[in-house]
Amino acid sequence: MWISTLSVFAVAGASLCAALPTELTNFLLVTTSQLNPSANSSELKAVSATSLFDPFNQPALLLRLTGPGYGSLPNFTLTSGTLSTIASAPFGGAKYRYNSTVVAAGKELQFLASEQPAGNLALDEGYLLTVNGSREGWTICEGALSNDVLSWKGNGTTCEKTYVHAVTKAPY
Ligand SMILES: *[C@@H]1O[C@H](CO)[C@@H](O)[C@H](O)[C@H]1NC(C)=O
Ligand SMILES: *[C@@H]1O[C@H](CO)[C@@H](O)[C@H](O)[C@H]1NC(C)=O
Ligand SMILES: *[C@@H]1O[C@H](CO)[C@@H](O)[C@H](O)[C@H]1NC(C)=O
Ligand SMILES: *[C@@H]1O[C@H](CO)[C@@H](O)[C@H](O)[C@H]1NC(C)=O
Ligand SMILES: *[C@@H]1O[C@H](CO)[C@@H](O)[C@H](O)[C@H]1NC(C)=O
C-alpha cells in the first residue's frame, strides 16, 4: 500500500503540485482508505464517488457511496466550516443551496436547505476533510435501503473507517 502510494508521488513528480487541490473552491468528495492525496483520484485506494440522497423524503439529505453509472455528482464549496452544494428538494422539487449541519459523533453527515451556523468541517492540507480538526473518524455504515452512508464515528456493526478527500475530478 505504502510502496504504491510512494510510487504515485515519484511518478507524478512536479505535476502533483499543480494537481493537488489546495486552491479548490469547487470540489467533489470521495471516500478512500488512503490518507495521502493522489494526483489522479482514480488511483486512490478503495476509492468511491459520493452523491446526495434522501431515503425517506426527509428534510436532511445524506451522502452515500455511488458506483460507476451515475448521472452526475454533486460539487461542494466549504465556507465557515460548512459544506454547501446545490441539490433538488425531495419530490423532484426546485433546486436549493443545501448546507451541511454541524457534524456530531454517531450521526450521518447531513445537509439542509436552510442557513446553518458556522460548522466544524475543514480541509486539512487543502484536500482532507476533517471534523474539529480530526482527520480520523469518518465511517461508512450501511444505512437506509442498503445504501452505504457517510457518518462521523459511526459505531454500528456494519461501519468501516474511511478518509474523505476533496478532489477535482471524479474517480470514475
Ligand atoms: C488515472 O488513473 C487511471 C487508473 O490508473 C487511468 O486509467 C487514467 O488514465 C489516469 N488518468 C490520468 C489523467 O492520468
Ligand atoms: C457544480 O454543480 C452544479 C449543479 O449541479 C453545476 O451546474 C456546475 O456546473 C458544477 N460546477 C462544476 C465546476 O463542476
Ligand atoms: C467539536 O468540538 C466542540 C467544542 O470542543 C465539541 O462541543 C463537539 O462535541 C466536538 N464535535 C465532535 C463531533 O467531536
Ligand atoms: C454509539 O454512538 C452513540 C452516539 O455517540 C452512543 O450513544 C452509543 O453509546 C454508541 N454505542 C456503542 C456501542 O459504542
Ligand atoms: C445555505 O447557506 C447559504 C450561506 O449561508 C445561504 O445563502 C443559503 O440561503 C442557504 N440555503 C438555504 C436554502 O437557505
TrEMBL record:
Signal peptide from the UniProt entry: 1-19
The keyword Signal belongs to this UniProt entry's keyword annotation: yes
This protein's UniProt keywords: Signal
Source superkingdom: Eukaryota
The protein's name: Pullulan synthetase
Native species: Cucurbitaria berberidis CBS 394.84
